[in-house]
Every structure is written in C-alpha cells, then in structure tokens.
C-alpha cells in the first residue's frame, strides 16, 4: 500500500458503477493468453488516466512484495466482500482508487488474491507507482490481504510462481531493449520506505523463502553472449552498451561521469574511461586496457 493509495477522496458512487461493470465483464473476460496471469483486459481495465512510461528490462533489479494493509486504507465494501478480496474486483478496485487519487490507474505491476489469482496491473514493462523513489528497478506485486489476515497457501504459491515468471520474462530482451542479467532480489515495500507494508507474514516470506527462490532463478539465467567489438564505438548506440553501463554501475566503475543522467545506449569517451579503469584493475596493460570491451571484459562484467 503506498501513501498515494489513501482513499479519502474516493467517490463511492462512481466506483460502484465501474465495479458493477467489471462484475459483468468477469464472466466473459476470464480467459487469457497467459496460463498464469490474467491480463488487464480480463478484469475490465478501462485505460490509463495519464500516460505511464515504460522501463527497460535491464533496469529491473528487485521484486517488491506488498499487501493491501490496514483497514483505514480500504474503501467501504462497495461490492460484495468476496468480490473485492478475490476475482476481478480486486484489481479493478485498486485501479479506481488510484484514478480517484489523481494517478494514472492501478499502481502495482501485479495483484494476487487469496484464491491464487494473478492479475496484471502495470505488467512487466510499465513503470509502477507503488514504491516511492524505487519504481524503476521494482516489479511490485500486491498480495491482496488486509491487516490481520495471513496470506493463503494459494496466494503464496502464486507469489512464488509470479517471481519465477518475472525472471523468465525479464531475461528475454524486447526488440531494441535490454534484459536482466541476474535474478531479481526478493524484497518488501518496508525495505524501501517507512511503511508496515507488506505486514508480518509476507515479511517472513520475503526473508525465509526469497533467497532460495532467487538462487534457483539465478541459476537459470544465461549470461549474455559477447555482442562483438562493433557494438562498442565512441558515438555509437547499441542496446549492449546499456547493459555495459549497468554492469559498470554494479561493479562501481563510474569515476568518469557522463552527461546522461541514466544508463543509456550511447558509448562515449566516459564509457571508455570507466571500462579502462575496470581493465586496469584486472592488471591488464596495453591493448588489454584500451577501454574497449572484448569478450573477456564482457564476460567478467556481465556474469
Ligand atoms: Zn506497499
């Protein structure tokens, strides 16, 4: 639950209308191309109220778990309770609350119910709005439980399945984009912001189940093949350069700053000097430390 989710301004009348429309759609819209995740279309998503930017898959690092939280964060039950806790009413309600709070719409990447249903919110490639200051690296999954309710076995199984799927999907680059090189860290909203979210049971899950899941997922991700020396020329853009920049940040070779505020596709003199620092630190000299990545530099930085 994020601060923006506070629902003081919710218009009960408008939401009730939207939710009964969603209820009617749920019978017809249940099927999805994905056997694990029910698409936005399946729960009656009616579009974003504001544009939502995309995030390159290479910039995702963390799987963040949330809950719905204390009762004060809940809208008065405007449809039958079970429809809000489970079924398409769950993501639909989150969507209405976020729009009423002047946001683009549902703030989580995915919503998981006690029945183990997984609903797509912002999905794999859109910027979420659930973790203040940490949305670019985060895939945010809300387990749709209130304070005082523990997650069901089905919900926890769905959470683990979603985590595994996240690493499969994000390890595949989209055209012109990057991908993750390492499994996502399993984390909680609490680790990134002063909040009780996701509550004691899910915090235990993050702490006790998360590391094993991560190790399992990490072993399945193959390192990227060396893209060839042509990808690394001053003034030349290539998706592999973004991967290189992110690897340099991770390895802390960032002494030579660039104009760009975020890792991008452009190989610059600053990129070359940072690569050079890395090569010199390996004890390499001469053409081995010219700042242009060869296969060995690439493998060491991206493994
Ligand atoms: Zn949260």
TrEMBL record:
Gene Ontology terms: biological process: peptidoglycan catabolic process
Annotated signal peptide: 1-33
Pfam families: Amidase_2 (PF01510)
Signal listed as a keyword: yes
Keyword terms of this UniProt record: Signal
Gene Ontology MF term list: N-acetylmuramoyl-L-alanine amidase activity
Alphabetized InterPro entries for the sequence: Amidase/PGRP_sf, Amidase_domain, PG_bind_dom_phiBT1-type, PGBD-like_sf, PGBDSf, TAT_signal
Name used for this protein in its record: N-acetylmuramoyl-L-alanine amidase domain-containing protein
Organism: Luteipulveratus mongoliensis
């Amino acid at each position: 639950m994020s601060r923006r989710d506070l629902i003081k301004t919710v218009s009960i009348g408008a939401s009730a209308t939207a939710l009964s429309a969603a209820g009617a759609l749920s019978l017809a819209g249940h099927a999805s191309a994905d056997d694990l995740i029910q698409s936005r279309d399946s729960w009656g998503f009616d579009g974003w109220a504001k544009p939502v930017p995309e995030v390159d898959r290479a910039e995702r690092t963390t799987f963040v778990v949330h809950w719905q939280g204390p009762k004060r964060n809940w809208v008065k039950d405007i449809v039958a309770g079970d429809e809000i806790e489970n079924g398409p009413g769950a993501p639909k309600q989150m969507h209405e609350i976020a729009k009423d709070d002047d946001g683009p719409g549902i703030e989580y990447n995915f919503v998981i119910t006690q029945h183990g249903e997984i609903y797509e919110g912002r999905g794999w490639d859109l910027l979420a709005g659930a973790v203040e200051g940490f949305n670019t690296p985060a895939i945010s999954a809300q387990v749709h439980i209130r304070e005082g309710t523990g997650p069901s076995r089905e919900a926890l199984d769905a959470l683990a399945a979603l985590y595994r799927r996240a690493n499969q999907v994000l390890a595949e680059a989209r055209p012109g984009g990057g991908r993750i090189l390492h499994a996502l860290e399993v984390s909680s909203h609490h680790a990134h912001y002063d909040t009780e979210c996701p509550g004691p049971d899910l915090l235990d899950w993050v702490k006790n189940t998360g590391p094993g899941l991560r190790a399992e997922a990490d072993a399945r991700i193959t390192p990227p093949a060396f893209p060839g020396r042509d990808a690394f020329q001053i003034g030349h853009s290539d998706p592999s350069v973004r991967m290189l920049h992110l690897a340099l940040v991770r390895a802390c070779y960032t002494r030579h700053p660039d104009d760009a505020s975020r890792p991008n596709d452009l190989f610059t003199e600053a990129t070359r000097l940072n690569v050079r620092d890395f090569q010199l630190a390996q004890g390499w000299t001469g053409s081995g430390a010219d700042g242009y990545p060869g296969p060995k530099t690439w493998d060491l930085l991206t493994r």
